[in-house]
Amino acid sequence: MKSSLAPGIRLITSFSRDSWYRGFTLFLTFLFYTAYHLSRKPISIIKSELHRNCSSVIPPADLNITNNATWCDWAPFDQDNYQTLFGVLDNSFLVAYAIGMFFSGIFGERLPLRLYLSAGMLMSGLFTCLFGLGFYWNIHSLGYYAFVQVMNGLMQTTGWPSVVACVGNWFGKGKRGFIMGVWNSHTSVGNILGSLIAGVFVSSAWGMSFIVPGVIIASTGILCFFFLVEKPEDVNCTPPQHHVSGTESEQESDETEPLLRNSANGTQTINGAISTEVPEIVEEHTEAIGFFRALCIPGVVEFSLCLLFAKLVSYTFLYWLPLYISNVAHFEAKQAGDMSTLFDVGGIMGGILAGLVSDYTGGRASTCCVMLVAAAPMLFLYNYIGQRSLGTTVGMLLVCGGLVNGPYALITTAVSADLGTHESLRGNSRALSTVTAIIDGTGSIGAALGPLLAGVISPTGWNNVFYMLISADVLACLVRSPSLPHRNSRLFDQACLQGNSGLVQTSPPSQRIQRHLNKSHNQTGNHTNTTQKGNGTRSDLTSAFQTKRDDSGH
Question: What are the tens digits of pLDDT across the range 63-76?
Answer without folding.
Answer: 666 666 677 788 88
